[in-house]
Design goal:
The chain has 679 residues and is of the alpha/beta class. The chain is 51% helix and 10% strand.
């Protein structure tokens, strides 16, 4: 019995998806530990908000109640703003405006409430604040970066031109680059370009760390950028990482996929452009990069509070407006938007897609659904805030299933069957008809130019010389971002505490060595502590920081050339993997690949045929199951080579980026009603 899945089915057999979070909360609370009074108040607020949405009523009492709730919890704040916008219309605009004015006059707000009230003013086109109000708020909250940001947004939205000196004062302060860029935007929007004090910018904004971005961004602001070509334009959002930073922070295989996919899709003559957008905090790369003639990568300098566990939820509408501003300035009008995560940034793009009357494609994965229950099927005991965050993401997924024009599942029919377990909406023929199952893909048969090979050799000569003895044994390789869920710490324990350390050396690649996140730092400290406690493994276990995709593939080719009695292994230690770009790349090179049984790897990896599926729950299961396959007396060297060859064939025949991109183009064009015939 799986309590989470049973409950999902029970709710969707009877109720609207809008009631889902509340009903789950009620059931969860009944079956778990008692919650405190503050948490109970949050639940009651959610109940009130959901009932208002169902009743479709927003009168004076309801507005008072919702405004009184604002500022108490990030998730209820999001639900409140969503409810007001959902129920907002011309007949109640005057009422809402009056109530917000009263709130300002009586100063019945803190910074959290103020942020969301200003957000509502911008969205509902209510210019309520006086000049003195704005100046007073800028002064009072000058250390609250998000309030400064939303006030700048307000000033630009309502073309308030009385704040030039105030904006210059902000630019002189020690704010994050994203806020300073927003200040520059405000100046460029409100005043003639020639009146902007360039020497002030040079002194207070531009520096060695951000000069590449600032220079390219100023060129963008001063130039009439247009991307006009016949055909369909696609915008795909990433929001986690950068094409050039794969393996660092939370930047995993998605960057590799979207870079290759965007380049390949853009080659189709029916496609005008592919735009890939991300949000950047590190302004050390250009604002816009081109990858091929028609694939454009845009790094949006949107400030986000990185200390928050959910950094998008508060800034959802701000993200939507900023993306809209960049698209408008560049005269970009996407025909299709493609989002890939259950989060509020993706929801922001979905809202923008609707506002622009574009088509919306949504890649659906059962995350966080898989993490809502224990292995036995019982509901997990989660902390209240973690539970609320996960329910918000589940709610977003449920809404997107109904509002999107097309849904992509990663993998084949078997994965679709698994998706249907977590998403009972699939029983609806209208929903089922939207779904297209498409795998992920890589560059197969990739020819790497001599210049890239020479650069790789120069970068790694010293490292290869220092670690020459390391490659005198077969290698277990693991590539990807460093994270608890990626299982690298468990892999190290599995290797060290088993026969694997006798026959193989272990190489883990990933992580930002220069600016590690807290999680990366924790994983790397584990590696260092482990080697200090086990000096016998020094030189036999190596952790190397994130490398470019080209360098990784060249390294894999170097490793696979060395022949031993035992095969080189690529072992993906993730607790679960939605698909696994790094696994496909290792298979294509010829590694014996082992991947997690949880997730989408099983859609292309068949146990004992082209690789092995293993339980990656912990170090013990990783070691036990890897040993059972690697040292199986029934599997000799010839049998292993057949499995390796089958893995290469699987990738070549099914997961080339060319094949995958054709499937995506066909799907996009079908939504547009375009002619499917090749041009």
């Amino acid at each position: 019995m799986n309590e989470f899945i049973e409950f999902r089915n029970r709710v969707y057999d009877k109720e609207s998806n809008y009631s889902y979070p509340l009903q789950f909360l009620d059931e969860y609370i009944n079956n778990s530990k008692a919650i405190n009074s503050d948490e109970q108040r949050v639940v009651e607020q959610i109940r009130t908000i959901k009932q208002l949405e169902l009743d479709k009523q927003l009168g004076e009492h309801e507005v008072d109640e919702l405004l009184s709730f604002l500022g108490e919890h990030p998730t209820t704040d999001r639900f409140i703003v969503d409810a007001v916008l959902h129920l907002f219309h011309d007949d109640n605009k005057q009422l809402i405006e009056r109530k917000i004015k009263d709130l300002f006059v009586n100063q019945q707000y803190d910074s959290q409430k103020l942020y969301h009230v200003l957000d509502l003013c911008i969205e509902c086109d209510m210019d309520i604040l006086s000049d003195n109000d704005i100046l007073s708020m800028l002064q009072k909250y000058e250390l609250d970066v998000e309030i400064v940001s939303i006030l700048l947004d307000y000033i630009v939205r309502f073309n308030r031109q009385e704040f030039k000196d105030a904006i210059y004062k902000l630019l002189a302060m020690d704010y994050p680059d994203g806020i300073k860029i927003q200040g520059i935007n405000a100046l460029m929007n409100l005043y003639p370009t020639e009146t902007i004090d360039q020497s002030f910018m040079e002194e207070h904004v531009r520096n060695k760390k951000n000069q590449v971005f600032i220079d390219s961004y100023m060129d963008f602001l001063k130039t009439d950028f247009t991307f006009e070509k016949p055909g369909v334009s696609i915008l795909q959002s990433m929001f986690y990482g950068d094409f050039e930073d794969s393996g660092k922070g939370n930047n995993g295989g998605l960057a590799v996929l979207l870079k290759g996919l965007g380049e390949e899709i853009s080659k189709d003559s029916r496609i005008a452009h592919v735009f890939t957008i991300t949000i950047t905090q590190e302004l050390n790369k250009p604002f816009i990069s081109s990858h091929g003639d028609k694939h454009v990568f845009i790094r949006l300098p949107i400030y986000l509070d990185q200390s928050r566990s959910d950094k998008f939820i508060k800034r959802e509408l701000f993200i939507k407006r900023q993306i809209a501003n960049y698209l408008k300035r560049s005269n970009i009008q996407p025909d299709v938007f493609h989002i890939r995560f259950l989060d509020n940034a993706s929801k922001a793009v979905a809202h923008l897609s609707e506002e622009l009357n574009s088509k919306l494609v949504f890649t659906l994965t059962p995350d966080p659904h898989r993490n809502m229950f224990e292995g036995s099927g019982q509901l997990k005991e989660l902390g209240f805030n973690e539970l609320i965050e996960k329910l918000n993401k589940i709610k977003i997924g449920d809404e997107l299933i109904h509002t999107s024009n097309g849904i992509v599942g990663i993998g084949n029919g078997d994965v679709k069957t698994e998706l249907a377990v977590y998403f009972p909406q699939f029983k609806d023929d209208r929903v089922n008809g939207k779904i297209k199952m498409i795998g992920e893909g890589i560059q197969t048969g990739q020819t790497i130019d001599e210049e890239a090979i020479a650069a790789y050799s120069n970068r790694h000569i010293e490292w290869n010389e220092t670690n020459k003895g390391f490659f005198e044994k077969p290698v277990i390789l693991n590539v990807g971002r460093l994270a608890v869920l990626k299982g690298q710490m468990e892999l190290l324990k599995a290797w060290a505490n088993s026969k694997l350390s006798e026959t193989h050396n272990l190489l883990i690649i990933g992580g930002d060595l220069e600016r590690p996140s807290k999680e990366e730092e924790m994983v790397m400290e584990f590696f260092e502590d482990f080697l200090q406690q086990h000096p016998e493994f020094k030189g036999r276990f190596i952790h190397k920081g994130a490398m470019s995709n080209v360098d990784i593939r060249l390294l894999e080719r170097d490793i696979i050339k060395r022949d031993f009695d035992y095969p080189h292994i690529y072992l993906c230690s993730s607790v679960k993997e939605e698909f696994g770009i790094a696994i496909l790349e290792a298979m294509s090179i010829g590694f014996l690949t082992l991947g997690p049984i949880k997730g989408g790897v099983k859609s292309y990896m068949k146990n004992g045929e082209n690789g092995f599926l293993i339980d990656t729950s912990n170090g013990e299961t990783i070691a036990k199951e890897t040993e059972s396959h690697l040292y199986d007396p029934k599997i000799d060297k010839d049998a292993v080579q057949k499995i390796q060859a089958a893995g290469q064939k699987t990738v070549d025949e099914n997961f080339s980026i060319q094949k995958i991109s054709h499937e995506f183009v066909s799907f996009y064009l079908s939504l547009e009603g375009a002619n499917e015939n090749e041009v």
